């Protein structure tokens, strides 16, 4: 399935910190930047996410702000 | 001013396509990935954005989904 | 690819109204409800969306508000 | 009060899982689909949400992505 | 209908700039601050919004970032 | 750094309620309205937010809905 969200950045999961409802997933992308992703804990379980996994960070265009 | 949005990726503006209310800004980040950002046309004008500018793509953690 | 966004509703595209940067896509879901989706015009083109297409409306949990 | 968010889907609350700050609410909509909604725990308390309640899932158009 | 979005700020519409799909609405709130709201043009039409209208700016808690 | 998000409302932090992953920050803005902001706990720590701090509530235009 293709999705309309236009930004897909390949990366590797470096850390997962589970909360009660949400979980924070840290993803290393090319250039060494660490992205912080907060998704539901249910999604972490369903996708069986764990450190070392190759994943995509997916971001809608309207959610990318610009700083200058 | 520091902002709570946790993800800031340095990049260079490669293209700006203005609409009536919104505008699409294409940003090249390390690794050669092109990010698509849709912001208001007012912001493009106020920040005087133009191709070649060094900017930051700024994204809240809750807006980073994960695909696997 | 599986995505962390938890809500996927099957539907059929009934209308597409293109703007300059964004486009409005109307999707009929089970029960006859019409969903309104605003995505980039680029995505409409890339996914080659057209009326009659079977698609999924995909929504993150944090974007579903509740009214009572 | 009428709200600009264009998508309102009637449903019934089937489950509420409270966290510290956020809470996950599961809503059954026509066709039997279960929607996952993550709102603040404060809102669950203020709206006195509980399983069995008839509610509306409310979603802005710009938050409805499309998968094909 | 009560809605889970926790922030509701009373204000007066000072300007509406319609695009093809989206529209920008400028709202003056107490203290004289001008808020910029981008909603669908369909919503502007359906709510019959016009300058001078008393409205509420409604914002989900997860969309309020903090700068310091 | 200037940011594309168009709405910046000055206020004072009145309360912080930390969860495991997220935290709720209550901000008083001119006119006495209390805004509710949910950001990551990491951001609360990094920005060293505490009650009494003068901060800005920052909101993207596309996240400001209108109720009438």
Fold and architecture overview:
6 copies of one chain form a homohexamer. The first copy, chain A, is mainly beta. Helices cover 9% and strands 51% of the residues of chain A. Chain A contains 1 helix and 5 strands, in the order E-E-E-H-E-E. In chain A, strands 3-2-1-4 form a 4-stranded antiparallel beta sheet. The longest helix of chain A has 6 residues. Chains in contact: A-B, A-C, A-D, A-F, B-C, B-E, B-F, C-D, C-E, D-E, D-F, E-F. The interface between A and B is large, with 37 and 37 residues.
List keywords for this structure.
homohexamer, 68 residues, mainly beta, four-stranded antiparallel sheet, 1 helix, 5 strands, globular
Explain briefly what this protein structure is.
The first copy, chain A, is mainly beta and 68 residues long.
Q: Walk across the major sheet of chain A and give the strand order.
A: 3-2-1-4
Please state the structural category of chain A: mainly beta
Largest interchain contact: A-B, 37 and 37 residues
Order of helices and strands of chain A: EEEHEE
Number of strands of chain A: 5
Topology:
Six copies of one chain form a homohexamer.
Chain A (H helix, E strand, L loop, with lengths): L6 E12 L3 E7 L5 E7 H6 L7 E6 L5 E3 L1
Antiparallel strand pairs in A: 1-2, 1-4, 2-3
């Amino acid at each position: 399935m293709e999705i309309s969200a236009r930004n897909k950045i390949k990366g590797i999961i470096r850390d997962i910190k589970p909360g009660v409802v949400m979980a924070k997933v840290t993803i290393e992308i090319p250039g060494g930047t660490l992205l912080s992703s907060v998704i539901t804990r249910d999604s972490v379980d369903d996708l069986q996410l764990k450190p070392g996994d190759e994943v995509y960070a997916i971001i809608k265009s309207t959610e990318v702000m610009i700083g200058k």
